[in-house]
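User: I'm writing a short report section on ligand binding and want a predicted complex to refer to. Could you take this sequence and inosinic acid and write out the structure as tokens? A short remark afterwards would be nice.
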Amino acid sequence: MKVLAATNNAGKLKELRRILERMGHTVTSPRELGLDLDPEETGTTFAENARIKAEAFCRASGLPTVADDSGLCVEALGGAPGVYSARYCGRHGDDAANNRKLLENLAAVPEGNRAAKFVSAVCVLLPGGACHIFTGECPGRIGFAEQGTNGFGYDPLFIPDWVGLPDGATSPNAEGRTYAQLADGEKDAISHRGRAMAAMAKALPELLGGTGL
Ligand code: IMP
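Assistant: Sure. The structure tokens for the complex follow:
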């Protein structure tokens, strides 16, 4: 199926593209379609914002659309930055400033109290069809300094509890590697987005039944 990955975030697009392509879909992006669209994320939940994005991009493209809204929830910060993850520092999408602010706000928080989780809500919208939401979470903790260069966003600060193995199984993250120190497959197998997309893949045959897509 040809799907639009509804995001303007280059790091997120890369992940959505590789996960969807691994599932056998053909992926296009807003940029490739010449769509200059930045829907306002007025929702208070990841699911609401995923839906807002999917609806806007599906309406504009007429294509089956997959949108992800995601973020980092830190226990010691009462769940912040949460749905405000992309704009934690006050500007949208400044990863370096977001990471600096997170480290500053956790400066006095000891090792044992730095639990966090990444959350993803993936919305699938077929033209003229219903909206379907799938969610995924990845538990972990926040490190004391950035480590690793892969990925995007908070990846260099987030240490997942588990990592993916080449055969698709998972193992405890004994070395304490951050998301940014994982290979693509190691992250996708355990990541919030990978898990939400796996749930979507499982449900998709039924959603597509009879649509001819
Ligand atoms: P959204 O585009 O409004 O969903 O914003 C998501 C924000 O959450 C991104 O800008 C990142 O700051 C953060 N985020 C979501 N997923 C990831 C991830 O896999 N790694 C690192 N940061 C992420």
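A remark for your report: The beta strands are 2-5, 26-28, 65-74, 115-125, 131-142, 158-160, 162-164, 170-172. Residues 2-208 form a domain with the Maf protein fold (CATH 3.90.950.10).
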